[in-house]
Design goal:
With 164 residues, the protein is an all-alpha fold. The protein has one domain. The protein contains 6 helices and no strands. Helix 3 runs antiparallel to helix 4 and helix 4 runs antiparallel to helix 6. The longest helix has 34 residues. The N and C termini lie far apart (85 Å).
């Protein structure tokens, strides 16, 4: 037998609205802010985006290596020069994909900062996104360095093959 409902949906006397506007004190503590900086699905989204960025980097590097290996081993009949530009195309497409993912990281950063501001009070340490400021610059530097080095290498190999 179903339990009896004492309140009809939406008829809680404004309690839900009061909780949404002013969260309970136990949700505003520094311990909660340091451990839970957003909804669980948001953390999972960030992890998936990070894994996606790394898999794009890995897959582009593997595709470039496979293309170079194929071009180097199939040069018995003279190949035209343009196939050596294919790895440059891989770098451009991969870098554009990672740039799009990086922009989504920025959107997550802004959203999490808004959540932290809503739950922070005077004297609270803030959250991780406030501590970072403009975002995780280490991730940007490592990803940017990877794409710069990879683009220089593919362009250098393409120019070398065009010159021979």
């Amino acid at each position: 037998m179903r339990p009896e409902r004492r309140f009809k949906p939406g008829m809680d006397g404004g309690l839900t609205a009061a909780v949404l506007i002013s969260p309970p004190h136990h949700l505003r503590t520094a311990e909660i802010l340091s451990k839970r900086w957003g909804p669980p699905h948001l953390r999972k989204d960030l992890e998936l985006h990070f894994k996606e960025m790394r898999s794009v980097e890995r897959n582009v590097a593997a595709a470039i290596g496979a293309t170079w290996a194929w071009l180097a081993t199939h040069s018995t009949p003279p190949l035209p020069k343009w196939p050596w530009l294919i790895p440059v195309l891989f770098v451009i497409l991969g870098a554009l994909r990672c740039y799009g993912l990086w922009k989504q990281f920025g959107d997550f950063h802004d959203y999490i900062q808004r959540i932290e501001e809503a739950f922070s009070g005077a004297g609270d340490p803030g959250g991780w996104e406030h501590y970072l400021g403009l975002g995780n610059t280490n991730l940007f530097q490592s990803t940017g360095s990877f794409w710069i080095v990879l683009s220089i290498a593919t362009i250098a190999v393409a120019l070398y093959e065009y010159s021979t």
